[in-house]
Amino acid sequence: MQSLTVDGQDMAFADITGTNLEEILVCLMDHPSINGRIITGVYLNGEPYEEEVPHAALEVERQTISSLSLKTLTMEDLGLNFLQAGPEYLETLISALPKIVENFRLGDEQEANEHFLNFLEALHLLMSMLEQTRHILGLWQGQNNDSSSSLNGYLESLVEILNTLINLQEQKDWIFLADVLEYELTDSLGQLKELLPKLCQKGH
Questions:
Q1: What domain range is 104 assigned to?
Q2: Residues 104 and 39 both lie in one domain
Q3: How confident is the model at residue 160 (pLDDT cuts 50, 70, 90)?
Q4: Residues 100 and 120 in one domain
Q5: Do residues 62 and 97 share a domain?
């Protein structure tokens, strides 16, 4: 017997079309019971399911599914979860900076640049998530207060720092780049780490 639950609520599997897991999930995303929520967990036949390669769910045929359970979150809850997890993510970024700085100052350009590019990618992802969360939660839209000024000022400052870092990398001024990483960027990320919990309170 095939069973289907969404956030603990039973649904009729027979009402969901699709010959494989991917098609079934696509159908569920359009179902009124999901209603724009984001699927955050998939449990297939009692076990957590994650794709090891893109579209692997196409290979999971419908008849092999005895049970399917989904966990979902609203976009608002997803945004709040990001704000709650943000400080820990930022601490990971901050802790990676000393090694990058050391490599630049020692003249180990290849290793320093490799780690620096990975760092920038992670930082850009964080900034993108922050901007999306800001819109999702409607934080500070049309407001003129200290929180709005703090966030806007922070984002403007961070963009300036990132532009400086990219210019210094192009100029191969590794010592100055290391100084900006150690003093300016570290301080800026620390400010954001303190700001995120306040944003989370505003989002409730």
A1: 76-203
A2: no
A3: very high
A4: yes
A5: no
Residue 149 has a pLDDT of: 54
pLDDT tens digits along 115-159: 999 999 999 888 888 887 877 776 544 444 454 456 667 778 888
114 shares its domain with 157 = yes
Backbone angles phi, psi at 74, to 5 degrees: -70, 160
Task: Tally Cβ neighbours within 10 Å of residue 49.
Answer: 16
Q: Tell me the per-residue pLDDT of 56-108, one tens digit each, with 9 for 90 and over.
A: 999 999 999 999 999 998 888 888 888 888 899 999 999 999 999 999 999 88
From CA 197, how far away is CA 195, in angstroms rounded? 6
Residues of the chain with pLDDT > 90, as a percent, come to 55
Q: What share of the chain is helix, strand, coil (3-state, %, to 5)?
A: 65, 10, 20
Number of helices (H), then strands (E), in the chain: 6, 5
How far apart are alpha carbons 3 and 171 in whole angstroms?
60
How are beta strands 38-44 and 47-48 bridged, if at all?
antiparallel
The CA R_g of the chain, rounded to the nearest whole Å, is 22
Q: List the one residue out of 103, 112, 134, 102 whose CA is nearest residue 200.
A: 134
Task: Report residue 32: phi and psi, to 5°.
Answer: -55, -30
Same domain, 59 and 106: no
